[in-house]
Each structure stands twice: as structure tokens, then as C-alpha cells.
Fold:
Amino acid sequence: MADDLPAAPGVGEPALVPGELRGYRQFLLRKDGLYPLVHTASGPWNGRLHRAHCSGGAAHAAPAADCLCGLYAWYQPGSATVSLGPASAVVAARGRCVLGDRGFRAAAARIEAVALPASVRWHPAAAARARRMLATRYPYTRVYPSTRRMLRDHPPQDVSALGINPPRDHSRGYRAAAAVLWVGFVLGAYSLVALPRAVVTEAAADWWPMLVLLTIAWQASLVWLFLRLMAEQMPNPRWRRGPR
Structure:
């Protein structure tokens, strides 16, 4: 870490582990910085070390064991590293932390690395503007052209020594399965255009019960994958009591 980064929290804030705890989360990439997905009115994260404050207005230091304040992050990439939409990032937390089964809440964190969203990478001008902004506002953050490269250089840490065994995150697999189902259905529907209309009409008349069942199964599979994905992304409310 660079020497001119702000100092670690003082003696009054017990450290989680010597050093920093790595986590994964997403940010809204805007022209003036990286904003949290919630509480965007609080502004973008600090370019060096961002400190937590209780959004409820309480006077206690964040995070508190009996509150939901703090800077959130996941132990595993999974649902926090989606290529589309917000920017996926790696954060390094320090100071007082409250540990959960899937993630943690920290008193302070810095953005260690960020991957440009696909929607930005596909537009060279937008990507160039984003890189210039990130280089200016986040000089200690490494910018990656893809989430895969970022995760290769910043893999998850083993937190078993802290008594944490996070469950495996299947969200990326659920997204891939949903994409395959959707693309397969669309390609199958468009392939009927290439067949003679008489053949399509005859097949539909003979096989319509099977077609109805396949359509229902396709829709049910998409709903199931969506529900599983939502379950994976839902933060576990059973935080461990007290800071670790």
C-alpha cells in the first residue's frame, strides 16, 4: 500500500486481522466517481480510504453489531462480479468489522481494483473517459478491462481461520444457465422461419401438446433460476454478534 494513504483506524477501533480483508462488491460508475448501489446520495467513495458512517443518523461508530451500518462486501466474487450493469470491484477492508456468513461490514475500505462494465468497454470513447476519471480520482485502484482478469489477480482470501466458511456462490452459473435457455429458445423460434410454412403448420398440428409442455418447462426453468439467483444475492441477515 502506498505510504501516503490515510493511516489505519486508531487503538479505539480493534482490527479484524493484521492487514486488510479482501471482499467483492459493485459500484455505479459515474462521471465523477464510483457510487455505492444504495445510499447514492452520500456521494462516491473516497479515492484512498473510505470510512463508514451510520446512514440512520445514529451516533455510534460504524459498523455496530446491533445495526446494519458499515461498508458491505462479499467474501466470494459470485453475485458481486457481474459483467453487465454496475462496475465490479475488489475492496480491501480494515478496522472494525462485523462478519456474516457470506460477507462482512467494515469501518473503512479502499477500492483495490475495478473492472469496467461491458456497456462501457464496448464504447471506446466512454471507456477512455472512465479510465481518465478513475486514474484521477482513484490513483491507487487498478483498472481492468474485464472481470475475469481482475479476479485472476485478486482471488478470494481464505477466511476459515476467522471461523468463516462461506457457502459456494452459484449465481454466475445460474446466470449462464438462464442465458443459454433464453438464447436456445430464441434461436429455435427463429429457425422455424427457414422451414416451409406447410411443414411448420403440420408439425404444430401433430406436436402441439409437446410444444405447450416445452414452453411451460422453459418458462418454469427461467422463473426457478431467477428465484435461485435472488436467493444467492440476498444478504444473510444473521450477522455474527460483535466485531471480529
Q: What stands out?
A: Residues 197-233 form the longest helix (37 residues). The chain has five helices and seven strands. The beta strands are 21-30, 33-36, 50-51, 71-74, 87-99, 103-115, 142-144. Confidence is low (pLDDT under 50) at residues 1-17, 235-244.
